[in-house]
Fold each of these.
Amino acid sequence: MNRKQFLQTLGLGAAAMAVESLPGASLLQAAEPQLPAERKPLPKNAERLSFGLQGQEAVVARPVTAIVIGAGARGNVYAAYSKQYPASLRIVGVSDINKVRQQKMAHDYDISAEHQFGDWSEVFRVPKFADAVIISTPDDLHYKPCMKALAMGYHVLLEKPIAQTAKECTDILRQARKYNRIVGVCHVLRYAPYFLALKRVVDDGMIGDIMSMQHLEPIRFHHMAHSYVRGNWHSSKDTTPIILAKACHDLDIIRWILNKPCKKVSAFGSLDFFIKKNEPAGAADRCFDCAVEQKCPFSALKIYVREHRYLYVFDSLPEDRAGKDAKIMEYLRTTDYGRCVFRCDNDQCDHYICNLQFDDNVTASLQMEAMTSYGGRKTRIMGTKGDIVGDMESFTLTDFLTGKKYVWDEDISKLPGYEGHAGGDWGIMKDWVMAVANEDEKYLSSTIDVSVESHVMGFRAEQSRQKNIIIKM
Ligand SMILES: NC(=O)c1ccc[n+]([C@@H]2O[C@H](COP(=O)([O-])OP(=O)(O)OC[C@H]3O[C@@H](n4cnc5c(N)ncnc54)[C@H](O)[C@@H]3O)[C@@H](O)[C@H]2O)c1
């Protein structure tokens, strides 16, 4: 049972949801007593796999110093690592055009006035004053700050997607090589204990040679509405197509697990539901004015006010429930988060299938679905000696010869920061801090060259979908 489920058993569902919604929520976990592991009984002829959870602390001679560029949701998650492990990381500068966020981070991390900046470019108008920058600005503001930071000698932690085109991605790769700097790409799932264990059993040959892989990314209907219909990633042109904006993690996981170059890609998908023609009779521009709001699962009032989901997008919310709800309503009247999901300016696909052929005829499929009630990536891997079925909390490996099952279901609630991408958010921080402190990118699993390759798979998939052709890599 994790902390959220625990709170729910106590009837504190709202608290559980608030925990889910907070940036840097993982910090709250650090102070919590650890909950006992609750595991399902194993089936007959089964054995539990345990590789032991690695701690998240980067043990370094002196704290790495970093500037956060983009003090939004992700910037706060990474900065919070330094609160938990002050001997590993220190945040010494902040840049954000949103004054409230800039000031909050400056206050939270005691950042001196001369190192508080507005636009990202201001950071680079002063001489270098930290080891590294953390770039967590919107997708269209990754390329320029990253190129500039590398040229000035900063190491970089770069949010995904790396950039908006394949060419920009390879430019960043070249720039990192030219200035001999480390770029850690936030493919955080690679650092989650679940995926690390999955990778380990595959690399140990427990299922023989992989023939194929099937991977599902269930977005959840309310997350789709929040991020890809109303929210920051509603426009593929201003950000990246959803196959990158949402699923570059999944392409990267597939490429990483299979450990072979991709040869061909084909993709299908479209935006079919969140469009004007599907609006119900009585709909209005905003949920406030809608006659059928109570009957709509995507209602902004339901998602933000009644369920208190994704509240991290709203700055300066009061603590008390009434004050908080009044402020949320104000945001819903004035921002895109209050708009009818059938009347937004969105163009991201709400269902997407991608077929991939790798070296040695190994095949993989990636399915990304908006219409699910559940989250958590589902993965099946088919090998010559056995197979694996997993759901991001646990996986079961079955050996064809003996019929024996091996179950991985480690209790990750023991890890500080476990709530962020199944432990991956702070897992990457540990490895990135180690890489920067030792000036050695080998500490990183997601080095820039490999990450660029899986991004290119995404750009090619989008080409295939749009042109209705199979693309050779
Ligand atoms: N690794 C992951 O799993 C993961 C998850 C979610 C988002 N992301 C990526 O992280 C990035 C940030 O996402 P987020 O959810 O934190 O968004 P966010 O909107 O919460 O944060 C972005 C911040 O950048 C600031 N900003 C905008 N323009 C700026 C400028 N010119 N100079 C300085 N700051 C500026 C914004 O004011 C905002 O505070 C995106 O690229 C997103 O795709 C990655």
Amino acid sequence: MTRDALIACDFSGGVLDGTDRGEAFIREALILKDMRRDYKLFKKEAIKRLNELAKPQHTEAKRVICKKCGRPQYVEFMGKNDRFKCPNCGTWVYNH
Ligand SMILES: [Zn+2]
């Protein structure tokens, strides 16, 4: 009985020859295979959810009026002191 045969659940080629616990080996190998599959899915899902959590917070579009030209803009501010450049006149407009 080789480790590779157990991992692959390949019991052909006489790998079970010479053991009187063939059925127990097969049962155990199949359970372990399922466990590996479930663990892989679990890990994948856990990483996906961690990435979701680590994403930056959703920001809402905010209507801001440029102080220089008076043109309203809809911008998504990330933080309190962020700024954007007015596409109409090029003035920096701050989030405060
Ligand atoms: Zn402007």
